Amino acid sequence: MGQEVCELLGWVLYDGGCGVCARWVPFWGPTLARLGLAVAPLQAPWVAARIGLSPEALLADIRLLLRDGRHVAGADVYRYVMRRLWWAYPFYLLSTAPGFRWIFDRSYRWFAEHRLRISGSTCGRDGGP
């Protein structure tokens, strides 16, 4: 029996210039597809037009663009996905618990701000200064 794919609900948008992001978000593509989510790089021409942010603001975070035009950014994208996966739901609950929410958000922010440097050292891509 084939894997069930839901109607497209939106897109998980990642920084295609980040080696970690460009490797791992597409890797999770089949799992995201079962949730009705496609994946695309933030650098795709249609993304900036749909979201309406400057290039710098657009690339600051992973984003979830829903079909109705709403979008979610940063750690909340992970929460959105974890809440919908039965096996990740305990992580969702942990990420929303008092105290742990702060840790989860700060951990995400640290990675987001250092991802290009991390990508350069782990994936052989230019991580910038």
Low-confidence stretches: 121-129
Radius of gyration: 15 Å
- The multimeric state of the shown protein is single chain
Count up the domains: 1
Classify the helix fraction into a percent range. 40-55%
Class by SSE composition: alpha+beta
Q: Main sheet?
A: 4 strands, mixed
Number of helices: 7
Anisotropy-based shape: globular
What's the end-to-end separation, in Å?
49 Å
> What series of H and E elements makes up the topology?
EHHEHHEEHHH
* Main β-sheet, spatial strand arrangement: 2-1-3-4
Overall pLDDT level:
88
Q: How many β strands by DSSP? A: 4
Tell me the fraction of residues in β-strands, as a range: 5-15%
What does this structure look like?
With 129 residues, the chain is of the alpha+beta class. It has one domain. 52% of the residues lie in helices and 13% in strands. It is built from seven helices and four strands, in the order E-H-H-E-H-H-E-E-H-H-H. It has helices at 19-27, 29-34, 45-51, 55-58, 75-84, 89-96, 100-122, and strands at residues 10-14, 37-41, 63-66, 71-73. Strands 2-1-3-4 form a four-stranded mixed sheet. Strand 3 (63-66) and strand 4 (71-73) form a beta hairpin. The longest helix is centred in the last third of the chain and has 23 residues, at 100-122. It starts with 9 loop residues before the first strand and ends in a 7-residue tail after the last helix. 22% of the residues are buried.
Layout: helices, strands, pairs:
Elements: E1 10-14, H1 19-27, H2 29-34, E2 37-41, H3 45-51, H4 55-58, E3 63-66, E4 71-73, H5 75-84, H6 89-96, H7 100-122
Parallel strand pairs: 1-2
Antiparallel strand pairs: 1-3, 3-4
Helix pairs in contact: 5-6
